[in-house]
Amino acid sequence: MSPQSWFSQTAARLRTANPYVVDAALAALVLFAVSLQWLFPDQGNDRLSWQGWLLGAATAVPLVWRRRAPFATAWAVSAATPAMAVYHAPPPDVMYGGLVVLYTMAARARAWQRRLMLVGWVIGATVTMQHKEHARPFEYAFHLLCIACAYALGWLARLQRAYTTELEDRARGLERERAADTARAIAQERALIARDMHDILAHAVSLMVVQAEAGPVVVRSDPERAEASFDAIAATGRDAMAQLRRILGVLKEEQQNGTSPQPGVAALPQLLRQVGESAGLRVELHTTGDPRLLPADVEVAAYRVVQEALTNTVKHAYAACSTVELDWTEDLLTLTVTDDGRGPAAPGGGHGLIGIRERAAACGGSAEAGPGPDGGFRVVVRLPAAADRQAALG
């Protein structure tokens, strides 16, 4: 294992360890360092006393609380260190506890607290060095350099912690945004599926109900017509199943394997024939302007709004005739579905008209519904037919 890798792993373990255990171990290490002169008294000529050892211990023991009460710890060590230097039995060769509290203050304290400590220790170290016997000039530089290095290391640790916190906050923010985007996409997809399922099933079931109600009426008087009604029910059911398979195929990403695309404007004549044959409703199609290819979502929306409008006509209007008009202009496709019935029973138009408005709005278009100028009911949907939808709508 390389030294850099070992250092990185050790630093990671210290960050995740219990802070009180780490601080107690650090205080014990500093206490051991200041006790070396008592452990090896023959290695120096300094005067030793138990009062001097107590002052040295006072520079180490408060470090146990350096993270719980950093400012109070700094004051305790700051008072004990010059007292030990003045007592001179022995004088401190290295300010171990002071270096630790300067690092802690620079890393964790408020701005005024860490600046006060830095200035105080620089002045205090300079003054106390004057009380040391035979102090040489390089010792001043050594102590001041130690103070500056300890403070700089704490300041760098503070910057790194702030940078790490910012990165973590940004990552959490991105995760929340990603989760919100995913939730919105799921909600939009569910709404789209619900609209498609409603359009397909409501259209098919309404036609099947009309034919099923007509079958028993003519089963004895006109067997061929009754047989045609039952054939229409079967054909409508097969068509609904085919469209449901297309939707499920899209959900399972089977379009790449040959699943048929969603129906568009080109499939409207077939839809009108089916409605006319199945429901006994006379449906006419009128086209003005030059038809052209539309964006995929607009194609599907055009087909579905016409399908839903005709379904509403069959279910609610009790109409005999319905007209579908396609008006192509340079920027818009206007779909108008009118009938000679009495309109929907619900004041708000029911879920069908809500689905029409939602489909139109999803494509950047608009929808209106209400009584026709000559009676009956009319649905008008405007869909963008240009590449630039904003320009098309206004």
UniProtKB/TrEMBL annotation:
Keywords: ATP-binding, Kinase, Membrane, Nucleotide-binding, Phosphoprotein, Transferase, Transmembrane, Transmembrane helix, Two-component regulatory system. The chain crosses the membrane at residues 20-41, 94-111, 138-157. It is an enzyme of class 2 (transferase). It catalyses: ATP + protein L-histidine = ADP + protein N-phospho-L-histidine. GO terms for cellular component: membrane. Pfam families: DUF7134 (PF23539), HATPase_c (PF02518), HisKA_3 (PF07730). CDD domains: HATPase_UhpB-NarQ-NarX-like (cd16917). One of its GO terms (molecular function) is ATP binding. Residues 297-387 form the Histidine kinase/HSP90-like ATPase domain. Gene3D superfamilies: 1.20.5.1930, Histidine kinase-like ATPase, C-terminal domain. Its EC number is 2.7.13.3. This is histidine kinase. It comes from Streptomyces guryensis. The lineage of its organism: Bacteria, Bacillati, Actinomycetota, Actinomycetes, Kitasatosporales.
